[in-house]
Amino acid sequence: xxxxxxxxxxxxxxxxxxxxxxxxxxxxxxVLRIRADLVAAMVAQARSDHPDESCGVIAGPSGSHxxxxxxxxxxxxxxxxxxxxxxxxxxxxxxxxxxNDEVPVVIYHSHTATEAYPSQTDIALAGEPEAxxxxxxxxxxxxxxxxxELRSFRIVDGVVSExxxxxxxxxx
Amino acid sequence: xxxxxxxxxxxxxxTGGEKVVTANGETLAAVVADLDGTYPGISDRLLxxxxxxxxxxxxxxxxxxxxxAGLQTLVADQDAITILxxxxxx
Lengths: 172, 90
Known about the structure:
- The structure holds 2 protein chains of 2 kinds.
- By secondary structure, chain A is of the alpha/beta class.
- Chain A has one domain (32-168): Cytidine Deaminase, domain 2, CATH 3.40.140.10.
- Chain A has helices at residues 36-49, 87-99, 120-125, and strands at 32-35, 55-61, 69-73, 83-84, 102-111, 132-137, 149-156, 159-163, 165-168.
- Chain B has one domain: Beta-grasp domain (Ubiquitin-like (UB roll)), CATH 3.10.20.30.
- Chain B is of the alpha+beta class.
- In chain B, strands 2-1-7-5-6 form a 5-stranded mixed sheet, with helices on one face. Chain B has a two-stranded antiparallel sheet with strand order 3-4.
- Chain B is 18% helix and 32% strand.
- Chains A and B meet through strand 4, helix 2, strand 5 and helix 3 of A and strand 7 and strand 8 of B.
- Strand 4 (83-84) of chain A pairs antiparallel with strand 8 (88-89) of chain B, so a sheet runs across the interface.
């Protein structure tokens, strides 16, 4: 799905009416449910890193599918067409996740000249079958504010499945 | 030489779901060969004809083996080996 502001009240098109979250709630499978502040943080980072691709993880409790902790990562490739976590950063990240009993619920990155859809490289290299792969495209606005494109996918054994994104709250 | 190997989610179908397994060997290459004996197919996921796959990271005691001696990296008893797929894409 594409998410664009519907009007100046900063409403965003989502798949259904936002429902309040309960503490400890297990998110439904087949949909990415995510807080608006986390969406805003991914979009802001993507704009800030444009024209290079930006990347990171949103960690959440193991087994929950609930993204909670925003962890921006450096794109070691510093490229407009490729991203890769630095190998030392990668180990430190996973060590921290393990210690917190967290998993990378969301793995996000931006495309800066193409749509927010996994590239062949994204599909070939996707190594977390449980993760929600979020793509943000900055092709329309670059570093500027404005409408954004953000979509979520599962990528398992080379098969891409798009899933609806349900944003809780208004993206500021 | 018994070492502990942390296995990433994507390879756990090969280890019966185990997150940490043990293996033997005096070099990383020997450890991978030993792992493949116990968990057939794992070597193919880690190595290709040129050695360690480009988008697989292996660490011995928190050091990326690419900065050590690659597959020839020596391992000692009780060393900790971590396998992580690169997080990368286009």
